[in-house]
Structures are given as C-alpha cells and as structure tokens.
Design brief:
The chain is mostly helical. Strands 1, 2, 3, 4 and 5 form a 5-stranded mixed sheet that branches. Strands 6, 7, 8, 9 and 10 form a 5-stranded mixed sheet that branches. The termini are far apart.
Length: 1005
Amino acid sequence: MSLNRQLIVTGFNDLEKANRFLAARELEGIDPQLLLDGFGLSADPDLALMSLVRLLGRSPQLADLVNGGERRSEALFRLLGASEALADFLLRRPEHLDVLDVRVSPEPAGAPADQLRRSLLTAVGADPQAENPVAGLTGAAAYTALRSTYRRHLTELAIRDLGAASPEDFMPTAGRELADLAAAALEAGLAVSRAELAGRYPAGKLAQVRLAVIGMGKCGAAELNYISDVDVVYVVEADDMDEAHTAVVGTALAAGMTRAISSPGPEPALWEVDANLRPEGRDGPLVRTLDSHLTYYRRWAHSWEFQALLKARAVAGDPGLGRRYEEAVAPLIWSSSEREGFVESVQAMRGRVTENIPLNERGRQIKLGRGGLRDVEFTVQLLQLVHAKVDESLRVRDTTSAIAALSAAGYIGRADARELDAAYRYLRVLEHRIQLVRLRRTHLMPETPEALRALAKASLGSLSTQRPAPEALLETWQQTKRRVRALHENIFYRPLLATTASLSADEVRLTPEAAQARLAALGYLDPRGAMRHIEALTAGISRRAQLQRQLLPVLLEWIADGVDPDAGLLGFRRLSEALGDSHWYLGMLRDSSSAGERLCHILSSSRFITDLLEVSPESAAWLGTDKDLAPLDFDTLWQEIGHKMSRHPAPREAVRLIRLIRRREMLRIAIADSAGLLDQTRVGIALSDADRAAIQGALQAAEAEVAGADGRLTRMLVVAMGRQGGREIGYGSDADVMYVHRPLPGADPDAAQQQALRIVGQLSALLQQPCRPPVLAERPLVIDAALRPEGKDGPMVRTLDSYREYYQRWSLIWEAQALLRARPIAGDDALAEDFLALIDPIRYPEQTSADDVREIRRIKARVESERLPRGADPARHLKLGRGALSDVEWLVQLLQLQHAARLPALRTTNTLEALVAIESAGLLPANDVQTLRESWCLATRIRSGNVVSSGKSSDVLPSSRRDLEAVARWCGYPPGGAAALEEDYLRLTRHARGIFDRHFYGQHG
C-alpha cells in the first residue's frame, strides 16, 4: 500500500503537508509503522503530527514513547490529536511531559477532590492542612506555579477522558473533576491573595476575615466544561470587626484571588472568575455578609436568581461559612415557584437565551439553540423548582443526577429519562471535544469538513476504529436536537394527561396535587379548572380523544406561553367541542405546527378572536395556510355580497348575511394580524373595505325596502369621515359618515327629503339592530353622523345644493377641517364626484387666515379641557392624551389646511400618507415627523390591542400589569415586555407633545 493510501486510511486530510512533516528530521529514528499506528488513534492526525514534530524538537526523548508501541504512546497520540492548546502547554512547560507516560484505561476513574486541592495548594507553597492556607509564593511566580499545575491536572484528565471506551459514561466524572479542579485553583488563588495582602493588613486582622467562595452555574453543580467562566458569589464575615471594614478586606481577598487566576502572565490566565450572578449583579458590592445576601434574596431578588441558586455550592474559602450559606438559601430556592411572576420570569429568561443568539450562529449552537443543552437544563431545573419544595429527593445540583432523581420519584417516565440523559451526555461530549481543541469558550458546531471529521472521531469511544463522515455526525446531532425538543414536551406536559386519562403503564402519573403544582408553575391561575378541561378533552377511547392525547403535550406548552393560559385552554376546549369529530381540525393541528401554535397563541392572548372563533369554528381552517388569511379586497367582497342579495331579496335577510360576511372578514383580518402577516396600514385598509362593503349592501337593502311602495325619489351617497374616511380604523370602530342625496328629476323635493331620511334611518337600523337568528359575537357597525354640518342640530341628510349653500354661507373652519377626511364609500358614483368637486375648494383653501388658525387652536384647547374623561390620566389616554392620536392628527390637518392648495400630495384622507407629504415638502423636520409617526402608530396599535386582548374597546393605556402585558404582546413586544411598552409609549407621546406644542400652538423654547 502506498504511503498516501496509508495516510488516507489513517485519517489525514492534507496529504502534501503530512508528507512534508513526516520527512522532518525530528522523526528520524522513529519506526514509521508505529508512527502511523499512533496517528490512527488520533482524532485529528494532521494536528497530532504537527504537534509531535514541535514537541520532539524541544524534547527528543519523546521518541522513546512512540517507539514503545501503542500501549506506551496511546496517551500521547490521543492528546495531540485532540488538543492543540494542551500541546502548546507541554511545549511551554516541558517539565510536565511525564504526564504522557501513562497507560490509558478504557474505564478511567476521576481524581479525588482533596488530592487536587492538596496539589494546587502545595504548588504555591501553602499548607493544605491549615485552616486559612497562606501561599509561600506571590506575584508572577505564584501565578505560574498555580496555572501550570492546574494545566498539568487538566492534561491528565483529558488523557483519561480521551481514552474512555464510553465518553458519555465518563462525562459526569469529567465534569465533576473539572469543577473540583477549578475549586482547587480558587483555593490556591485565595492562599496567594492572603500572602500578597500580608503586607497591607496585620496578620491577625487578615485571619479574622472569613471569605467563602460559592460556586454557581456548572462549577457549583460539579458539571463544569473544559473551558468556561467560573461563576462565583462571595460571602464574608469577621468577628469583632465592623461590616464596612470586613467588606474592604473581603473585597481585597476576592480581587487577589481573581488576579492569581485571570491576570496576564508568562503562563496564560486559566479562565475568567465571574461574580456577576451576585445580588444586584455588576452594580452590587463584590462581597456581602450572609445577612446581607439573605436580605436581598428575601426582598429584592428576581425569580430567575433562585433558578441560578439551584446550583450554589461552597467550593473554596471558609467551609463553615459556605455551609451556612447553603443552608440559609435552600428554603428560599425551594419556595421560589410560589412567587408572583415566577412563570413570567422563567419564560422571559428562556426568551432572552434564544433571542441573544446571533443569527449566523443559530444553526450551529450546541448549548443555546432549540434542542440544545439549555433545553435539557431548563426542563430539569423547572421541574425541580416545581416539585422539590415537597420532595427533597430532587434537591440535587447536577443535571444527570437530577434526571435520575426525577425519574426515580416518578416525575419523568423511565424511557423519557433514559433518552434525555443520553441526549444530554452526548451533547456535553460534543461540547467538551470542541472546547478541548484550543481551550476556548465555544458552543458552536464546526463548519469545515476537516474539523467535523475530527470531532466525529473524538466523540467516539477509544475502542472504536471508525472514522465517521461529517454528514453522519451532523445527522446524529440533528436527530438528538429534535429528540430533546420532543422530550421537553413529553416530560413537561404528558404527565398532566396521565393524571386524568388511561395511558400506558410507562407513563408518569402525577398525583392531582403534583399536576396542579405543575400547571400553576406554568402560569395557570386555576390549575383545578385546567385539569377538568384536560380530562374532558382526553377522556374515552374515541379517535378524537386519542388525537387530543397526542397533541395536548405540545399545545399545552404553547397555551402556557400566552398571557392567559386558563382562558386559552377553556377556548381550546370549546372550539374542540364545537368542531366535534371534524376530520380536518385535529388533522390540521397534528400536521401543521404553525396552525397549532397560531391557535394556541390566539386562544391564550385574545378574547376578541376567541369569541369569534367559538361562533364560527370552521374559520379555524384558515390557520393552516397564509393564503387563506389574506384579506379580501372591496371588489371581491362586493361581488360576494351582490350574489347573496340576488338570492335573498328580503332586505333584513340579506343584511343579516352581509353582517355575517363582515364578522367573518374581521376575524380573518385579526388572525392574520396576530400572525404578523399584515402591517398596521393594511389592517386599517382591510377593515375599512369590510365596513364599506357592508354599508354599500345595507344602503341598497334600505333603498329597496323604503322605496318599494312609493318608488324611488332620490339618489343617495354615504361619505365616510374621520378615521373611517382615512381607512385607518381599528377593530370595532364606529363609522363616522355624512349623508348626501339628490332628488330624481321631477320628484317632489320634500318627498325626496323624507324618503332620504327614512333610507338613512333604515340603513343604520339594518346594520345595528338585532337579527333573527342573531349574529353571535358581532361588533355591530355603529353609524355616527355627528360630523355633519351643524352637528347634531343639523339635518341628518342634505341635498347637494343644501350642502353648497351651507358651505358658502355658514361653514366654520372646523367643518373644513372635518372634510379633510371625507371619502365617498357607498351610493351614487356621479353624486360622489359632484360632492368631491364641491368640498375640495373648502378643505383645500387657497389660504388659511390667522383668525382661522386661532379658531382651530381654540377648539383644540377646548377639546382637551372638556372631552377628556373625568379622572383620566392625560399621559395614558390614547386618543385625547398628551402627544396621542388627536395631537398628531390636528397638527397634520392644520398643515393640510394651510398648504394642500399648493401641494397636491397633501390632498389625502390618510394621516400617514399626509405625514410623508409633510416631510417631503419640508413643512416639519424629518426627525419630528418620525416621532409623530411612531407615536401615532403605537397609540393606534395599542387601541387595537385593547380590543383584541379583552374584547372591549378602550382608549386608555392599561394600568393592570396583566392587561398591559397582553397589549404589549399584541404590539410585538417579547414576553415580559409590558414595562417596555409603557416606557416607549410615555416617552414617544411626551416627545410628540413637545413637537405639537411647537408647531401647532407656536410654543418655542
């Protein structure tokens, strides 16, 4: 066999470089076959070859190990093929090369913690038996001794790990030893710190101060990575010394310990000592007394901080103080799931983890991505927090032990526990092998084929002779991620079903109390009621019950992610009962995860949409495809309404069908809006089109009913005003209108006027009065004609000539302002053209006098003082409040009155379009326009959110946290975003009001 062929079989990637290095003089005298056999043991033979040549150049005696055959050289080849960083260490510190002369065992054991502590303390010249060890070395000499001894032990561990027949079996031992080694380094660093502070403080005073180092995260849990920040918290105390002085000395001790481990030096830093999990984080004092810790945790701590405390363990410093800390915080940890906001806090933490992953890393994350290590840890930790307050067997720190405890106690099924444990160990082995190469903090799957091939080999046991292809590694990893995600759903939610349904013997059966505790921890305020819904959905042996049992573990999680899980589950039950055995419904939920997630999000976040779905459950079919959620335009709606009216000539029957179509379209638009398929502008247009089609249909029906006996005497026109005219309405908005009519030639004017009045009266009644059968859950379209000339004192309907006479003789500036948003929407087309020709010169005047501007300002001030509801907070009122809708619209309309005659782009009924024209014309600074736009859009979105979340209209930013959270979700904020929405709204409207005052009232400075 040729050399190149042998190299390929051995696993080399770069044959040219391999041939060049194999010819290096450093390899002379080494048996070539033994060399190739050794490289066959390496995960990355290319890396092993380069590292070996470098080491032989510094230490030629290593050739004896290679020539000694596989039994002597296995450790060398496995290490050099897996870790460039540890090869660099041995090159830097050749006095530690003897670690390579060791027999590799397929079933290695871990090094005892006390042995590691003793070794590190001895390295810095400290007495391991002393109560407060003090190093004999200080400065760079101490740091080098500490770090090189640490890395020697790290190398010994890596050799044992790489030689294990089953890396997954050895993983918990490796994690525990890494944590013990970190603890030993902290202990040695503290001894160095004591020695360095000896010149600053009297020996007695220094000895008085007791400092306990509490390991957090993976260090505290004794499941550390090869390279990781070591999270710590410091506790300090001293007899006969005031707390302030104690804190000063304790801070100096902690800082000196960190310096010994993390500062630059001839031997590089080990890792970062991270104290940011301490109370108040970076803003809090570095060290605290035990009482100070407890005061903080009892009064101010966030719920996520108790989840972090699950791992807290005394790892260095004063053991008695550390033990007292552990005992003191334990009751706080295990009662934390009862805290208000616990669920929201945990959900927010989950969200932050995934949101903070850079987009280019999401597909490569082993730790933080979907189906990654964090999913396993989150699942296990939340189950512990829920159940360990009454079951002490679950009070363990490391993940593998916690999985075993949860399974033994019956909270996780045995099969699920085995799979979860295996997946966790596999992912941790991948993480260890990736980090070991360069000893860098990374949790990303490599991208190059060469690195993937080396990782695939390194993650196999030492007895395997395979070299899996990169594709095989990636496929196994993807399967593991998918399984972890499924296990999360099974473990969390399926046991809730087993409590109420007859499932297989292997299923976990929680007691009713445990099931309710789990539901409460997931955010259900009425766990007992939730259990009743689950029982009703899963009882029996029907196909529907079987499918529900399959689906509910996933659906319950999605529902729990909403604002009101109790309402969501009740809505799901009602919808499921309404649809009965409809084959498409459960099939859609089973086959379309997007449909299921959308439905659960809606049911637990929107009373408005839920109510509409309950009365038209067949509309749930739209959830499965975006195409079905596209709003119908006016022409399509009008064509459908025309067909309905031709088949149902009776006006009331026809209008009932029209109202059903409007209700259907409102539901379609709301679902599309909730799914993020429509922006705010398209929502307003779609809702306006639905209203317009309904008004057009009702007008024709009213005309047919009123004119049926006497014959038609006049032509009608309905003109939309206000936000309806601007096509920027929200859910359930009234329709502000004016009515115009024109008598037919030869018709008696008085009779035509009376007929027009009856038509508009009938139009309003047809759209608003109850139907038979009723249109359930409808938000009737309320017709409001208050913006007509003379307001409520004027006639409900006028002829075109009457409008002309009125506007020529008596029109006020506010009426011209109201006409800025006039838009014909139903009735006679010719009359519409004539009406627009009449009003355009009025609403777009050649000039606006100073008196007109003063009058507009006077009316606006009066509106602010008189129309704001009594007791309403102006800062929170969405329509009339400070910098809210009214302020933006009045400023825009004033500018339209002043400039639209010469700037045609301003001749629009839409506020946002007008703002674009205002910016383009330079009438306002671009930054001011942007602020006005954002304020107007957010206020509009919040108004819709009020309706959608509660089913009720409100013009006030909610004060209730729960209601505000629901509106924040609707506005696109992440879970826990209520405060951010409130802050954004108050800030935007405050700025918008300043702009309004400057440009509307002319207030500067």
